[in-house]
Design goal:
single chain, 427 residues, alpha/beta, TIM Barrel, 39% helix, Metal-dep_hydrolase_composite, Putative selenium metabolism protein SsnA, Metal_Hydrolase
Length: 427
């Protein structure tokens, strides 16, 4: 049994000052310090914030070795971005690249307070067994929770992609789970979608209407918009994750809402790729459940939440168009979808919830209370976000900024792997 003491607890709903948390794999008890009776192992939060660990609702671990990569790059549209960068990169990823990208990503996630990752994977040189490679590195060795899928695409051997998803879906624990991965409409034929629909009946994880290219491709080839096309094959299943939806129509949003799917926003990536920004107000109007990811662009999820908060105000042309409550709702939904797939309770600091906790130092320069705690988090804590402790499933993965792994050796080996990969890509 462990305890965090002298904590400012905030789980985006409840704020408690000078509290303790008693936990093992799950939270057993919380309360004011005057009621604390001790524990075998104690972590002193020293009056700092204790938050639930972040969940990233859509990411790409395989992008780890893209940092600093220099390839000829002159895109005229979104598909050029894929063909000139991402499809070149993922086509050359094998087991070693997948393994070390996941190790490095796991360490970076810990440093940034991320405790659960919903990943969308692609690797042309390792399809079979690739998801288990990620699970072994990220969950078994690093200690984070992960929900994985393989990006089924006509660029790869479709049957191998399908089998990899189906095989991984057979294994599940509170630390890992599977979804069925599809790339995007523009890389999926009708034959592939029909095959997937017949062989698999559960939720999917797919990019949808990320760019106008995806929409125009679907309309020109099939006479349907992207999300309507997925529905034609019965693939809009409850608890599916539809990433982006920047160019989704009103009719498509209504369909997403009706089918109880989740949209994963990735605004930093959208801005970086210049594909536009999603219309959150329209999604909210049509009762769509929205979560947030980072699309594999970096590891600083606090930054992603800030970019979401500010960009949605800009998109709505008003400082009132996106509120604290909107951001709280998206954060809550992201915990909800991860909880559903892992079959645990994430996102609250209450008895019975998973002990996935982070301690974040913060000295408020102005009064702090339950009424303004979220304002301090957005404009203060997230602005200089550096957790000192990260706990997942009751295990301390980082203590006083020290990660309990051979970090230097992992990065040394990862650099060698990256160098070899870049040589292949530049041939």
């Amino acid at each position: 049994m462990k305890a965090i003491i002298n904590a400012k607890i905030f789980d985006y709903e409840n704020f408690h000052e000078n509290y303790y948390i008693i936990f093992d794999k799950k939270i057993n008890d919380i309360g004011p310090m005057e009621n604390f009776k001790g524990a075998p192992q104690i972590i002193d939060a020293k009056g700092n914030f204790v938050l639930p660990g972040f969940v990233i609702g859509h990411t790409h671990i395989y992008s780890t070795f893209a940092r600093g990569l220099n390839l000829p790059f002159n895109p005229l549209n979104f598909k050029d971005i894929l063909t000139q960068l991402w499809w070149k990169l993922d086509s050359q990823l094998a087991k070693e690249e997948n393994y070390y990208s996941a190790l490095v990503a796991g360490i970076e996630f810990i440093k940034n307070g991320v405790t659960t990752v919903i990943d969308h994977h692609a690797s042309g040189l390792q399809i079979k067994g690739s998801l288990n490679t990620l699970k072994t590195a990220l969950c078994d060795e690093i200690g984070l929770r992960g929900i994985f899928c393989f990006e089924t695409s006509d660029r790869f051997n479709v049957d191998e992609c399908i089998n990899e998803n189906l095989e991984f879906l057979k294994t599940r624990s509170e630390m890992h789970a599977g979804l069925f991965g599809l790339h995007a409409s523009l890389s999926l034929s009708d034959n592939t979608l029909e095959k997937v629909s017949k062989l698999y009946k559960g939720p999917i994880h797919i990019h949808t209407a990320e760019s106008i290219d995806d929409v125009e491709d679907s309309l020109s080839k099939y006479g349907l918009r992207v999300i309507t096309r997925l529905e034609k094959f019965g693939l809009l299943r409850e608890n599916s994750i539809l990433a982006h939806c920047v160019h989704a129509s009103v009719e498509e949003l209504e369909l997403i809402s009706k089918k109880n799917c989740f949209i994963a926003l990735n605004v930093t990536s959208n801005m970086n790729n210049a594909v536009g920004l999603p219309n959150y107000r329209l999604m909210k109007k049509h009762n769509v459940k929205v979560i947030t990811g980072n699309d594999g662009l970096g590891f600083n999820f606090a930054r992603e939440l800030l970019n979401l908060y500010f960009s949605m105000k800009l998109k709505g042309n008003s400082p009132l168009s996106f509120s604290f409550d909107d951001l709280k709702s998206i954060i809550s939904n992201t915990y909800e979808i991860a909880s559903k797939h892992l079959n645990i309770k994430l996102g609250k600091i209450k008895p019975g919830y998973a002990a996935d906790l982070i301690i974040v130092p913060y000295t408020p320069p102005t009064p702090l209370n339950s009424e303004n705690a979220f304002g301090h988090v957005i404009y203060g804590l997230f602005d200089n976000f550096r957790p000192s402790h990260v706990i997942v499933n009751g295990k301390i993965l980082m203590q006083n900024y020290e990660i309990k792994l051979q970090v230097d050796e992992i990065y040394k080996q990862a650099k060698k792997v990256a160098e070899n990969l870049w040589k292949k890509l530049n041939k």
